[in-house]
Backbone:
């Protein structure tokens, strides 16, 4: 890829300037699904949490699954983008903003689920530590409060991480548009001009943020895992949960990023910016995470099985051979058996279709993994007399579907407003032209070249 | 076409709010048997489970109490207090148990058979009494059921808390009006300053 | 004006209690009188057939039935399970709003108006003895007239559980304070204890070495439910000839 | 505000223009602060993009983190003592969970301080009208002098052009 700045400007600002009828159709269709979710939530507010399929003893179900899942997806963006920035990987340039936007949107979606899940959602603000006449504060010993703080820190951090490098691009849009859009982007760009001082401070800030956001991202999913690990519930009370959840989050995050990038590439005609090499690199990361994920599942299973405690084993066999076993084995197939061979073979991994094919089951499998952590342990908690079952209701399914529709909807709206590839960072990569950008020449081509030249 | 995006945003926002409200509008709060998630379900006292209106629910949510209540008889507290009647004379049992009594018409008539019989308000009282009815006094002080408060007058009186610290100076009032907000901060501050228990289960159960 | 009663301000303090219960499983016949009494005393909603079938029934005390042996030689064991009022309660620390906390009397208190319904406590409770109002409770006429005015009615979205009949504790304390005396052992009882025909349930102060419950708690038949979790329950189970004896000698 | 500037296609000629301006500033009566550089992307490997490299931003961020953490720990332990309630047999000020929250608030403090420091250091937001040319968005580099002294304009134009400017323009606000 070697383009002049004018070409880059034109091609990357194209989605902002022209809109096809297909776009409106997609927004309308997704908007309808989101509205169905809102309707379902309204129904639940009216009828109480009893509108969901929850019961005693399964007090947590699909909502918490969705919450953990979306937090996991959020690790696609800021964490990966920050790691790539810190390690100064040149191929990151077209990927970063695409990834960071996933983080912000999936965090926003994730943050609604604890509220939807509450029995009395109109009192959700009691989680916020604000001074009140009651003189009573939230309880900071509760993992839910840790969640609240971690989520807010992560949301503020990743929003800044997304926003800061957007200022120069907003300025670019400002200079290339007229009327209300010029005024709007003028405000959004905060009057960015591009003095050396501004550039230097921005780069410095991004370096600091990248370093700061990595431990935050790790802590966020660790704390989400502690929601479970802090409770004396068989299958939950485990020290492995922190790293296990972080690994799973990055795993599902990369898978989501690959899917989103493939869609963005196709729909916004960015074939020359998001190249197969990017999918190849992310595919390698995905392969590594898949193996790490499998290692964690094995480690968790082995220690539980070897320890052989009655209450732990009840839950263990419930998932491995009991009523949840179809879901469990489907999860293993989706997360390891399908993607590992595809991603291990270089020829498949370097084809975008195949990496996407490996990513879709991972997203499904990771949702199942969260479901299998939440529900079976609650169904068969310690006292056998209190065993129960759980089936999600249409309300829970509707809200879940709506959350899956909200993600592309927010993304569609986002690509209309913000260039999905950080233009200035891309240009910066252009004029330095480091070696990593170029795709390595496949071995067979070298061999062919050698034979052709007669050596 | 450029305005399409903002139009969609507005439509989504409006539609989202509307579809949350839709079940409420469809179901209608008029139907008394519906189960509802509005913050409350009881209109007065702890023991009725009737459905309340959306507005009443909102008032309860924000802790808004009506300051004054229209009473059937404009009872002048100030005259009675000025004439040297202590509160317990009529509000019997306040120092003993949980609630302060509201006197029956017969109690009033022990005096008002002879005192001020020509006043219009006393005539109203007398007519209730003749019909064998009680005066339908309306409650001024109460806690919303969502406060889950169980208040006992007795221990407070025995601890020497003046009636007026919560109910205002009745030497100046005709019918009772709600003087103190009686929110949790009001109670807790007094409990703190008197070094009595601020344990939650002192009041909430 | 209430005249200031100066003499009453000289602090009369009730002795702090440490409430506990003993459950004699050898005496329990599984008659469920305690369950009914608890429902009546504490305004516990009956959720109806449909909701109960979905596992949303609420009984602050329940009789768990376990069967031992093979047919026809079967023994039924009854185990009344109520909130164990743990000293190290797993449910308390996870509540984000202090709706569940431990008070000075050793009660594992549940403050309804503070509850926002995260249901985390119910997950954390190993005894599964926390009950959630999945739907708004309703009482068909005239059942609403039998509600106990001393206990608040919980609405939808609130977690509730056994309180050791805190309203009776408070009433007894206020009476004792009025008469300026300390509470006597057995002066009052929670509804379940009061209604138990075989006196399988005993309630009292665990800190008072003379009380019945503290003597039963030290009995060699005494055991706790799920003792290995370290929750320090304040309900003691009494049973002869069971695995408890082997574990707790 | 007035300015005379040249637009350059490549960093080398921009650097040449910069050098020419710096040679001339004593003679024509302006100083370094009046030399203006605007670019569409950072040129940190070139001398003209190296102005103002000194910053205390990392120290600010670290300090912000420290302040955030200390304030966070104080706030959390204060709320725990303000209405002391026992839960789960734990002490009132619980050190382990407070550590988690202190950590989160440390990071929040660092992140917020970084953002605020960036905005202050980069003089943002600033919506006033300044010397600007949208051409920098097409990869051009703008080198110029703001408020050039009387009589120096012609010399400045000559020097800017001699460095290989695509265009030399004047900005009058």
Residues:
């Amino acid at each position: 890829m070697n383009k002049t700045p004018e070409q880059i400007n034109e091609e990357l600002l194209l989605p902002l300037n022209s809109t096809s009828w297909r776009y409106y159709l997609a927004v309308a269709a997704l908007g309808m699904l989101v509205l169905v979710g809102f309707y379902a939530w309204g129904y639940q507010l009216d009828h109480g949490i009893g509108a969901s399929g929850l019961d005693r003893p399964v007090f947590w179900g699909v909502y918490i699954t969705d919450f953990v899942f979306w937090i996991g997806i959020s690790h696609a963006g800021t964490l990966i983008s920050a790691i790539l920035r810190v390690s100064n990987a040149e191929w990151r340039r077209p990927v970063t903003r695409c990834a960071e936007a996933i983080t912000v949107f999936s965090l926003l979606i994730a943050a609604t689920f604890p509220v939807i899940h509450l029995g009395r959602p109109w009192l959700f603000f009691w989680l916020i530590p604000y001074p009140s006449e009651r003189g009573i504060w939230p309880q900071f010993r509760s993992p839910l409060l840790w969640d609240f703080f971690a989520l807010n820190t992560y949301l503020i951090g990743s929003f800044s991480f997304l926003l800061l490098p957007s200022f120069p691009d907003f300025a670019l849009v400002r200079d290339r548009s007229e009327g209300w859009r010029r005024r709007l982007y003028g405000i959004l760009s905060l009057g960015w001009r591009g003095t050396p001082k501004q550039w230097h401070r921005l780069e410095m800030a991004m370096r600091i943020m990248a370093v700061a956001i990595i431990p935050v991202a790790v802590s966020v999913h660790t704390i989400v895992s502690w929601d479970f690990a802090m409770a004396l519930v068989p299958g939950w009370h485990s020290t492995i949960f922190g790293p296990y959840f972080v690994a799973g989050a990055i795993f599902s995050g990369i898978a989501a990023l690959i899917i989103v990038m493939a869609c963005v590439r196709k729909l916004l005609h960015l074939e020359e910016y998001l190249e197969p090499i990017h999918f190849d690199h992310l595919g390698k990361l995905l392969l590594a995470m898949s193996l790490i994920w499998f290692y964690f599942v094995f480690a968790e299973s082995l220690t539980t099985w070897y320890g052989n405690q009655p209450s732990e084993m009840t839950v263990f066999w419930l998932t491995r051979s009991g009523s949840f076993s179809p879901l469990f084995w489907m999860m293993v197939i989706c997360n390891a058996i399908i993607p590992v061979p595809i991603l291990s073979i270089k020829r498949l991994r370097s084809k975008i279709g195949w990496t996407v094919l490996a990513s879709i089951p991972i997203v499904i499998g990771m949702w199942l993994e969260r479901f299998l952590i939440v529900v079976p342990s609650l169904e068969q908690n310690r006292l056998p007399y209190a065993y129960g079952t759980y089936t999600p209701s249409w309300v829970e399914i509707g809200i879940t579907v709506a959350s899956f529709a909200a993600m592309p909807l927010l993304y569609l709206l986002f690509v209309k407003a913000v260039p999905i590839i950080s233009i200035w960072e891309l240009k910066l990569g252009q004029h330095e032209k480091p070696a990593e950008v170029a795709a390595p020449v496949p071995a067979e081509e070298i061999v062919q070249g050698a034979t052709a030249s007669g050596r | 076409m450029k305005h399409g995006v903002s139009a969609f945003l507005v439509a989504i926002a409006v539609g989202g709010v509307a579809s949350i409200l839709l079940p409420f509008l469809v179901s209608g709060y008029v139907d008394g048997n519906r189960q509802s998630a509005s913050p409350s379900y009881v209109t007065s006292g702890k023991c009725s489970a009737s459905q309340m209106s959306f507005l009443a629910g909102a008032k309860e949510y924000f802790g808004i109490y009506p300051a004054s209540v229209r009473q059937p008889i404009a009872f002048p507290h100030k005259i009675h207090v000025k004439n040297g009647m202590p509160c317990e004379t009529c509000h019997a049992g306040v120092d003993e148990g949980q609630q302060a009594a509201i006197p029956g018409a017969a109690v009033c008539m022990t005096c008002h058979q002879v005192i001020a019989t020509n006043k219009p308000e006393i005539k109203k009282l007398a007519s209730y009494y003749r019909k064998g009815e009680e005066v339908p006094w309306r409650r001024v002080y109460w806690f919303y059921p969502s406060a889950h408060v169980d208040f006992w007058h007795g221990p407070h009186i025995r601890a020497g808390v003046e009636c007026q610290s919560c109910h205002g100076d009745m030497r100046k009032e005709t019918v009772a009006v709600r003087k103190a907000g009686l929110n949790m901060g009001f109670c807790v501050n007094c409990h703190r300053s008197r070094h009595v228990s601020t344990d939650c289960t002192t009041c909430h159960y | 004006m209430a005249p200031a009663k100066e003499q009453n301000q000289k602090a009369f303090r009730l002795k702090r209690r440490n409430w506990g219960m003993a459950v004699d499983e050898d005496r329990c016949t599984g008659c469920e009188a305690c369950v009914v009494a608890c429902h009546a005393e504490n305004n516990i909603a009956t959720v109806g057939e449909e909701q109960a079938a979905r596992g949303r029934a609420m009984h602050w005390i329940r009789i768990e039935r376990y069967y031992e042996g093979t047919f026809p030689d079967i023994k039924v064991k009854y185990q009344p399970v109520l909130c164990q009022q743990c000293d190290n309660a797993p449910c308390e620390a996870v509540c984000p709003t202090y709706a569940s906390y431990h008070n000075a009397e050793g009660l594992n208190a549940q403050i309804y108006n503070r509850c926002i319904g995260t249901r985390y406590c119910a997950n954390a409770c190993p005894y599964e003895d926390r009950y959630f109002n999945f739907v708004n409770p309703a009482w068909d006429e005239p059942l609403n007239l039998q509600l106990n005015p001393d206990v608040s009615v919980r609405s939808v979205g609130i977690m509730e559980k056994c309180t050791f009949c805190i309203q009776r504790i408070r009433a007894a304390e206020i009476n004792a304070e009025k008469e300026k005396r300390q509470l006597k052992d057995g002066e009052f009882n929670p509804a379940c204890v009061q209604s138990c025909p075989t006196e399988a349930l005993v309630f009292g102060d665990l800190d008072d070495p003379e009380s019945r419950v503290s003597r039963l708690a030290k009995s060699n038949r005494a055991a706790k439910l799920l003792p290995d979790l370290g929750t320090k329950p304040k309900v003691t189970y009494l049973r002869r000839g069971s695995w408890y004896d082997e574990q707790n000698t | 505000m007035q300015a005379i500037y040249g637009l350059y296609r490549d960093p080398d000629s921009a650097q040449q223009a910069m050098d020419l301006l710096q040679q001339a500033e004593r003679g024509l009566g302006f100083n370094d602060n009046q030399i203006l550089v605007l670019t569409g992307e950072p040129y940190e490997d070139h001398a003209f993009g190296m102005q103002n490299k000194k910053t205390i931003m990392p120290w600010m961020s670290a300090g912000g983190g420290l302040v955030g953490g200390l304030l966070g720990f104080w706030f959390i332990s204060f709320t725990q003592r303000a209405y002391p309630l026992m839960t789960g047999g734990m002490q009132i000020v619980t050190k382990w969970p407070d550590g988690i929250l202190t950590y989160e608030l440390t990071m929040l403090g660092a992140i917020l301080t970084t953002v605020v420091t960036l905005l202050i250091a980069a003089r943002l937001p600033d919506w006033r009208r300044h010397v600007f040319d949208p051409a920098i968005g097409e990869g051009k580099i703008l080198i110029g002098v703001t408020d050039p002294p009387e009589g120096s304009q012609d010399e400045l134009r000559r020097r800017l052009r001699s460095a290989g400017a695509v265009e030399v323009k004047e900005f009058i606000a």
Summary: Chain A has 19 helices and no strands. Residues 5-117+142-440 of chain A form a domain with the Formate dehydrogenase/DMSO reductase fold fold (CATH 1.20.1630.10). The first helix of chain A runs from residue 5 to 17. Residues 161 and 206 of chain A are 7 Å apart (CA to CA).
